[in-house]
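Researcher: Let's do a round of design. I'm pasting the structure tokens now; please hold your answer until I've finished.
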């Protein structure tokens, strides 16, 4: 997978999060295409039902942390069978066709649905593997939840607006000062090891060297920390030929904001920690 393609997928998620800060900013056609995610059995592997509360919070301007919602969502997602390639293909096709104008506003009007489907199918197992890491030294708490909780004292409350502000600050080159005991944990080492093994060609040697100098050579040795375990269910869900599946990784029943925000925040928990190492 080339860096250009990987960046395209990342831009899609991040862009939809920004554009989806309120349901009113999403076209009615896109909302209609995505609305079936909660009740659609094929896409239940994404556990999007757990994200409804975030839509209410984002719409009301609440400053409440999304961490408990992230925890509930990922706990349910990890306990369910993984999505099949067939399900992922169906939901990607739906978002590509139903949200064409919305993607165009993000400068992604020429995205090839087939290429995007392939990217999602390639990335999904790794994203799920990282999202479902657990810390056995902390009652099997999800590593994503643990990392988000550890980050909040240094970056502020991770509300929907807080996440957007943090993402904008990092994108602008302003990296919060976070201590090593937050960024260089067994959880982040395990996540880094997975990403390094799957997408090592995307990590420059200078970046790996910077991470090593910050967290130590053992952080990048690829060894799985004894205190970190995989909580994801090993089975894969079957998929029917349903035509009303929605793009769970990028959508929600009442608009794009909830699920896009959670996906972005969960990935931000890992990617921000790595970025702060450099």
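Researcher: That's everything. Go ahead.
Model: Designed sequence:
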């Amino acid at each position: 997978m080339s860096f250009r393609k990987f960046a395209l997928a990342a831009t899609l998620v991040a862009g939809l999060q920004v554009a989806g800060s309120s349901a009113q900013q999403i076209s009615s056609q896109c909302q209609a295409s995505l609305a079936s995610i909660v009740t659609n059995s094929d896409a239940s592997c994404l556990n999007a039902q757990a994200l409804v509360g975030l839509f209410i919070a984002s719409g009301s301007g609440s400053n409440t942390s999304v961490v408990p919602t992230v925890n509930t969502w990922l706990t349910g997602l990890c306990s369910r069978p993984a999505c099949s390639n067939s399900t992922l293909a169906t939901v990607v096709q739906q978002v590509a066709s139903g949200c064409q104008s919305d993607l165009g506003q993000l400068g992604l009007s020429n995205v090839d649905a087939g290429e995007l489907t392939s990217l999602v199918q390639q990335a999904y197992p790794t994203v799920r593997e990282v999202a479902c890491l657990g810390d056995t030294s902390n009652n099997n708490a999800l590593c994503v939840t643990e990392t988000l909780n550890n980050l909040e004292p240094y970056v502020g409350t991770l509300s929907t607006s807080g996440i957007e502000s943090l993402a904008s600050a990092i994108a602008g080159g302003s990296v919060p000062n976070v201590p090593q005991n937050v960024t260089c944990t067994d959880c982040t080492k395990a996540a880094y090891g997975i990403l390094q093994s799957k997408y090592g060609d995307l990590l420059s040697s200078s970046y790996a060297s910077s991470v090593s100098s910050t967290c130590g050579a053992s952080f990048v040795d690829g060894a799985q920390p004894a205190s970190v375990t995989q909580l994801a269910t090993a089975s894969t869900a079957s998929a029917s030929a349903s035509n009303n599946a929605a793009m769970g990784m990028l959508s929600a029943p009442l608009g794009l904001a909830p699920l896009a925000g959670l996906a972005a925040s969960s990935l931000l928990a890992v990617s921000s920690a790595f970025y702060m190492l450099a």
